[in-house]
């Protein structure tokens, strides 16, 4: 079946530094979504990527969809304490949406 | 607009019992999905309902079941509870079942099985 893997599982970041989290699918995707879950909260939709090679930005967050539509990345610049949480990617293939295991981000002030 | 509402917020049960969780989607949303979240396991898909019909099902045993009512509200039931069923159960709604729909999650029901 379809598998979506995220790396790293944990990311410790110094405040002000940049980091990237990666999402890899075992199959070609029709689109990919990213969600953020704050500690004690529920996942909240961030963005959806549909086109091959697509890049979208949300302030300090840059999302990219791979050319083969099998992988994606989320890059955060100048990390802030408000970026703490778990970031999930979710790959869509047909009518199935499969979530990755998430990257838990911890920020050191 | 009110968000996705899940009840109860917390639940404690013992092994062998059964439990029913409730989810009210955002007004106008017709698709409801259920996920199980455990530490280190991410979000595991349980099932998806649209127009009172189960459209998609994850790899969970038959002890896990669900249904959707005509007003789009959904319930999930877990029978013969096991210790491993302890988890946060999240419900998510979307407008339709189209492949480009984003999910709106509720706050979840934290189930503890003793």
Plain-language structure description:
The complex is a heterodimer of chains A (109) and B (114). Chain A has strands spanning 4-7, 10-14, 19-25, 31-37, 44-49, 55-58, 61-65, 71-76, 85-93, 96-99, 103-108. In chain A, strands 2, 4, 5, 9, 10 and 11 form a 6-stranded mixed sheet that branches. Chain A has 109 residues and is mostly beta strands. With 114 residues, chain B is mainly beta. The chains are: A mainly beta (109), B mainly beta (114). Chain A binds chain B through residues 1, 30-31, 33, 35, 41-45, 48, 50, 88, 90, 92, 94-102, and chain B through 33, 35, 40-45, 55-56, 59, 90, 92, 97, 99-100, 102-108.
If you compute it from the alpha carbons, what radius of gyration of chain B comes out, rounded to the nearest whole angstrom?
13 Å
What's the average pLDDT of chain A? 95
Distance between the termini of chain B: 37 Å
Low-confidence stretches of chain A: none
Sequence stretches where pLDDT stays below 50 over 5 or more residues of chain B? none
Radius of gyration of chain A: 13 Å
Structural class label of chain A: mainly beta
Query: How many strand elements of chain B?
Result: 11
Class from secondary-structure proportions of chain B: mainly beta
Largest interface: A-B, 24 and 23 residues
Number of strands of chain A: 11
SSE string of chain B: EEEEEEEEEEE
The percentage helix of chain A is under 10%
**How would a crystallographer describe the biggest sheet of chain B?**
7 strands, mixed
Shape of chain B: globular
Tally of helical runs of chain B: 0
- The span between the termini of chain A is 41 Å
* Helix content class of chain B: under 10%
Number of helices of chain A: 0
Question: What is the oligomer described by this structure?
Answer: heterodimer
Q: Bin the strand percentage of chain B.
A: over 45%
